[in-house]
Structure formats: structure tokens, C-alpha cells
Design brief:
The complex is a heterodimer of chains A (393) and B (332). Chain A has 12 helices and 10 strands. Chain A is of the alpha+beta class and 393 residues long. Chain B has 3 domains: 7-66; 87-175, Butyryl-CoA Dehydrogenase, subunit A, domain 2, CATH 2.40.110.10; 184-326, Butyryl-CoA Dehydrogenase, subunit A, domain 3. Chain B has helices at residues 7-22, 28-34, 37-40, 53-66, 72-84, 186-217, 229-254, 260-289, 300-312, 317-326, and strands spanning 96-98, 112-115, 118-123, 134-138, 142-147, 153-159, 165-175, 177-181, 219-220, 223-224. Chain B is globular. Chain B starts with 6 loop residues before the first helix and ends in a 6-residue tail after the last helix. The chains are: A alpha+beta (393), B alpha+beta (332). Chains A and B meet through strand 9, helix 10, helix 11 and helix 12 of A and strand 6, helix 8, helix 9 and helix 10 of B. The complex binds flavin-adenine dinucleotide. Flavin-adenine dinucleotide sits between chains A (126-129, 134-135, 159-161, 211, 371, 374-375, 378, 380-381, 384) and B (218, 220-221, 225, 228, 230-231, 287-288, 290-291, 294).
Amino acid sequence: MDMRFSPDELAFRDQVRAFLQDELDPGLARKVRLHQHLTKAEMEGWHEKLNARGWLAGNWPLEFGGAGWSAIQRHIFEEESARAHAPRVVPFGIAMLGPVLQKFGSPDQQDHWLPRILNGDDWWCQGYSEPGAGSDLAGLRCRAERQGDHYVVNGQKTWTTLGQHANMIFCLVRTSTEGKKQEGISFLLIDMTTPGVTVRPIVLLDGTAEVNEVFFDDVKVPVENLVGEENQGWTYAKYLLTHERTNIAGVGFATAALDNLRRIAGAQIHRGRPLAEDPLFASEIAAVEIELMAMSTTNLRMLSAAAQGQAPGIESSMLKIKGTQIRQRLDALTRRAYGGWAMALPVPGNEDPEDADEVLSATATWLNNRKLSIYGGSNEIQRGIIAGALAKG
Amino acid sequence: MDFQLSDDHRMLQDSLRGILTRHTGEALWPALVEAGVPAALLTEAEGGFDGSGAAVALIFEEMGRAGVALPLIPTMIAAAAFAQAGQPADEGASHAFADAEPGARYDRGVAISADGDCLTGRKTMVAGAEDAAAFLVTTADAMWRVEAGAAGLALRPYPMLDGQRGADLTLEGTPALRLGSLTDFAVPLARGVLAHSAYALGCITASVELTLDYLRTRKQFGQPLIAFQALAHRAADLAVEVEQARSAVVNLASHLDDEAPLRDRHLQACKVTVGRVARLVAEEAVQLHGGIGMTEEYALAGHVRRLLAADTAMGDADWHLDRFARGEPAWS
Ligand SMILES: Cc1cc2nc3c(=O)[nH]c(=O)nc-3n(C[C@H](O)[C@H](O)[C@H](O)COP(=O)(O)OP(=O)(O)OC[C@H]3O[C@@H](n4cnc5c(N)ncnc54)[C@H](O)[C@@H]3O)c2cc1C
């Protein structure tokens, strides 16, 4: 057993640090640290810098223009980026659709769409969930009917993250109502500028609209936008989910949040002293830190098992649960660290209390990060997966 | 032993419920004043007609359920404090309580100080500041009255987490009237804590009811969510905690007029219990709803934010737990 990074991995980490040092604008990093919503241009700008360095798609193989990183390299990149408060790579094109097209797409689809993802020509969003199909995703009803060389799509998607910026959406649609519900689903790429597509924002608890409803009314989609085979979409979706769940532990995000909490606790006054010196509060911070220490190693153990070719099973479910619990606990402690100062409503660009943007950010982050345990397969669904595997023995 | 409401209080509850269903927005405050609700929060000596723990608890639980965002709590605390200090009553006026200071959690006198009869410094999260006729202001160990529009007083208003409007106060040599020491006003302050706790209890019950309704009606995998035992047990845990919160409120309401040490222990225990349950319910109600629980459009959103605010107001669960453990009084 050797828990240390290899010399190559350490050298890679130094490269990542140097890159972040040179390329990451402090103003942008501050926005990320305060959990403020970035503009489309800010996200695209960061993608451009990464792409220029060949690092935008760390998870893609070299042949498709990716960086071809190992799981450990990806982990290092993600952790360093999060600690430096770099914007995260928007996952929909790079982390989700890319791997599906590489595995199941036609050569034409690969040639057309993959370079466009890297160059930022398309902004993708994920059209899986529907009002009636959340945890029970296979219950989805948005219909695609084949008519000649087109599909005609009717129905609704919801919770579509950053759909307001997107020109393309990859959707799970129902192409058959026969047999098991998983067997009538297809994976379709839809141009959102097609007539009949309507996007409506959903305002969340923190007052911002990062998710949307997307409506399809007789939307014509060329058949060449079908990925793989008709009615095989569920298989591709499950494959995609395994990619959605890499970096699921969010160790880097948690580490950044812990650093932030410590800084705040060092500055807020409690009984005339810094809050960080208060034994009650300090022990709460310590308890989360201890959890994080163990989880980072759980994460690395599972990454290295995956790197040695072991098929990922319930590990990603475990990391999802523990990782989101830790982050939500840190968010709660950060809000509590401000005590009576944390009672204002975070409204971007509105009237606000003096010197309080970090306080508002603590509240906004608490509110917004409730999503961590809901999306990407809720924590209850993850427990179900673990329990199901344990029951089989 | 009788935990039922008295006839008078039942009538008060009925009339309050009626008002809360009929009036919203700007019309609500005058309707409440007309129905004597602010006066019900004060004793006869304070210019009201009740002021009992039971009245305060029942009024604010209804307010919390309905999600009313009015500066009724600061008005109650200030009116009681002013009356106690022999100030003339100002019926129908609203007041503000300037207590919290930036960067100081719940410490007082960190960002503000007194020089003779003038105050200089900052206060923050002052609910109802824009409409206040007068401010009740705390310093390290004293309670002060500052008139709206006093020299050197500036307001920076903004929306608050609970739907009210609040403000930062900057005071620069602002003339103020010293009303007494903080501990002199332990009873009005205790009533304020009771009000916040009862208000939170109203939000807690409303949130849990919404959650249960949703679990019974929302179907996934062909079944109502409540049919999944993992969720049903979480709902059961919430139901247990709601009763704990209610009992903590009852404890404080019943000991409001007792001697300081006993009242303070119940005050601290109430804020700790209700604060913790409020946090739990805020998290669990959203989680059990799934995505819909995170949306502004759904009725839960306001409750979640009000739950956070109610825990934070006048010392959160952490702060009161610390003082309870040390055997300290509620205010010093
Ligand atoms: C901020 C945000 C962003 C999102 N972004 C996207 C996106 O870009 N694209 C997209 O397609 N989707 C997205 N989603 C949707 C997300 O995947 C769903 O919210 C999630 O699958 C849960 O579905 P639901 O909200 O319908 O809740 P439900 O499925 O109705 O669940 C409600 C509650 O019941 C629990 N539950 C459900 N079934 C069971 C069971 N069998 N056993 C035990 N408990 C159960 C859930 O865990 C939850 O607590 C997003 C959601 C959010 C909140």
C-alpha cells in the first residue's frame, strides 16, 4: 500500500496549479467562491482557456481531442480547480453527452458534434426529467413519433439546468409504449431553435433561475439525430449516469467549503473572541473535517480500484451520499457561523446590507445546495441501490 | 392541569384566523390593529389587555402558519419596553428592535457604543426599520430608545429572509434615551423569544403538513411516495419532532412570568429545541418533496426561509445551548 501520489502525478498536480495561477482571474474566482451564478460568457471563457491548453475534456480519449487523463489525474484536476475556486466545467456536453457519442454515436455524429462541444459551438443541456418522471425516470412520457425522415416530438421536460443558455438538448423520449417501460425509450439530440420548442425559467429557493421547463410542440427532429438504435436509449442513459457520477464525492468542493468556513469562523466574534476558538463550534467544524478526511480516502480507494479495472458498483452511490452530506453540513455551519447577521434575503443585484456579500452568499449557498441530495439520483434512490446490492449478498 | 385554550383565547384564535384568510398585504396591519391583536400581546400595565404567554404563543403560531411577514414581534418587544420605562404608548405605530451587529453574531456593543446620551456605530438586520416610529436599540449592557429621523441616523434597507423588509442602521452621535440595563427588560425580551419560537412552530407545522400531503399524493414507480417505508419513517420522525417543538413552546409560554432563573432555562431550552427542529424540518421538507420543494412557486419556499430566519433571530440554537450549558442567564 502506498497512499502517496506518484512522481508523475505530483508533476501533473504542479502543472495544474501553475495553470490555475496563470489563467484564473481573481475576480472570477471570487464569484465562484461566493457561489454567485456565472454569466454564460464567463463559463464559455473558462472553457476556452481550458480548451486552448487541451484540458477541457480530461475524461475524453486523445483520439476525440480529449486529454486522456487517468481517473487519478482527473481527480487531481478537479480537486485543484475546486480549491482554487475555478469555474467548474459545464458537464452536459463534456461529461455527459461526449462519452455517450463516443461509445454509441455514429462516426458522422462523432465527427460533427464532438469538435463543436470542445469549441463551444453548442451549449448542451440534459432533457431527462419530466414532471411525472423524476426518480422514476423510466416513466417518462415525452413522445417522439417517426414520420418519414423526421421524428415529431411532443411533451415536456423539466429541471433543465442552464437550458436558458442552450441551443441543443439531449433527450430521453418515448418511442414505444409496448413491453417494459425501459424498452420504449430513445436518445434524441434536439436543436432548441426548432419551431415548437419553448423554454420557461423556474425560480428556485435562492431567487435565481438556473433550471427551466422545456416544452415540445410538434417539434421536427431529423432522424440522423437519433443516437444508437431506437428503443435502446435506456442503456445509453445508464452508461451516461456512470459518467455523471464521476467526481460525485465532490472532495474538492468540500475542501474549498471547509477552508471558507474556517476563514469565516476566524473572523466572526463570539463572546468577545473569534468564533473559531469556541469549543462547541470548533468541535462541529472538526467533526466534519474528520469525515472529509475519511471520505477523501474512500474516494481515492474507489478511484484506484476503478483504475485497476474493477467495475464500479455501489461505490458511486456511497460517495454521492457521504459527499453531499458533508457539503450540506458545511453549508449549514457556514450560515450558522454568521449568527444574527444571516437574516437578509440574497437577491442578486438588489438592495443589500453593507459588507455582507459573503453573508448573503452563505444563505444562498445553503438554499441552492439543497439540490445536491436531490438531483443526479436522490440520496434515497442511492440508498435503495446500495440496499438492493446488499440484500443480494 | 389543562392544556386547552381558554374561551377568550379560542375566540382570539378564531378571529385571527378569519383576519388572516380575509386580509393580505397592506390591508393586514390595520386589520390586526383594529382587531386588537397588538394589544393582546401586551399586559394591562403595558397598555394592552392580555400579554400572557398563552396569548403570545397562539397569535404567533397562527402568524407562522399563514407566513405573515409583519414587524409585529419588534413592535411588541419595543412597546412593552417603552411602557416599562414609562414612555407614553403610541397605539397603532410599529417599532423596530435594533439588536444584531455585523460580524458579531449575538455579541452586543462590538459595532456600537454610547457616549453620554449619544450612540455611534452600526446595527444590522433591523426588521421593520423603514416604517418604525421609534427604535429599541441595544448596546453592550443597556437598552435605548432612538426616534425615527433622529440626527445622525441613516438607514440602508433591503429584503429579509422571512419576507419582511429590514435595514442596516448607521448611528453617528445619534441622540438616544437610556431606558435601563438589558436585564431590566428580560420579560419583554423573553416574550420576543416566545413569539419567534411560536412563529417557527407555525411554519414547522405548515411545512410538515405540506410534506405529508405531498407524500400521500405524489406517485413514483406506480405508488404514492408515502408507501415507501424509507420515506414514511422520515415523516414519522418529523411528526415526533413537531411535538417536541410544541412542548418547548408550551414550557416557555407557561414560565414567562416565573422567576428569572427558571424562565431563562425554559427560554433557552425553547430556542434550542425549536431552532433545531426548524433546521431539521427545513432540510427534510425540501428533500422529501424532491425538486418541487426547491421552487419559489411552491408554498414551501417561504416557509423554508422563514424557518431559517426564526432560528437565527434573537440567538440561535447554538447560542442558547451554550448559555444553558454554562448556567448563564438569557441576557447579560
Ligand atoms: C437544481 C436541480 C437541477 C436539476 N437538473 C436537471 C437536469 O439538468 N436535467 C434533468 O433531466 N433533470 C434535472 N434535475 C431533476 C432531478 O434529477 C430530479 O429532481 C430527481 O430525479 C428527483 O425527482 P423529483 O424531483 O421528481 O422527485 P421525486 O422522484 O418525486 O422524489 C420525491 C422524494 O421521494 C423520494 N423517492 C422517490 N422514489 C423513492 C423510492 N422508490 N424510495 C425512496 N424514496 C423515494 C426522493 O428521494 C425524494 O426525496 C434537476 C433537479 C434539481 C433540483
